[in-house]
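fyi for ur records
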Amino acid sequence: MSTVTIDYQVEGDIFNIQRFSLNDGPGIRTIVFLKGCPLSCWWCSNPESQRRRPVVMYNADKCMHCRRCEEVCKQHAVRFLKDGTRKFFYENCTGSGDCAAVCEYNALEMKGQRINVGELIKILKKDRSTFRHSGGGVTVSGGDPFMQAAFAGELFKACKAQGWNTAVETEGCAETEKIMSILPYIDTILLDIKHMDAEKHRQFTGVSNELILYNAQKMASVSPLVIRVPVIPKFNHSEEEIRSIAKFAFLLKNVKYIHLLPYHELGERKYQMLGMEYKMNRLSAVSLSNEALECYRNIVEKEGVRCRIGDES
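which gave:
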């Protein structure tokens, strides 16, 4: 049996570690969120993940308008107007952290840190007894983990060396070769399929779905998939659009089930804190209850694919 070589010094950029999750793979899990995503979905609940570099989140309720952040920002991303209003220009921010460092009131929070695989494994070991007793493990999410393929690959290998179950949450929009090289170290693949129409997918996410659908076929050829569908009003919130995804999933022949995820607005405040537009406001969209998705479950199952909704286990 060949020995797997692991480079524990490979560094990556993460923005959160969430413990005791029940909905991101089997058992009780710890989720590691990596930065960087090729998509910019209108409804993204983690907009702080989209850029690879760190970003600064601003809590206006804590701001005392001391203007120190404005003074130290070399990129002029922060400006105070004559009426005292603080303006933040997200596109100018480089994530240096100078502003957060001088804020005495904790109104500014950095999202993003560099860490190597060895350091991260030491943190994850805190939950190893939970993994063992619950049949859980580590889920790598984002952003999209495959945007940091070298780091994600070594992290998955290191997790498997510990005997932990591994899972990935991915958009599937990355180089096929990089994805396929990492799959042997991943036990559960949670793949987002948002829409079957390439142009509508581009309009609402910033990219076409062609590579995603191709990679779904490649991944399904070697590993079972869970396909997750965020059900978004005025994007894919129709019987025909859900049916088309179910038909595609059935043809893959290696899909465990489709997981329908109702739209929610939990990430909206993050956009305000980042100085970004929350585009879903253009649609006057409303959150969907699990009951509203029952008709879609029937559609999916009529196409021969098992279906779950929301927090169902």
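Residues 239-252 form the longest helix (14 residues). thats all i got for now
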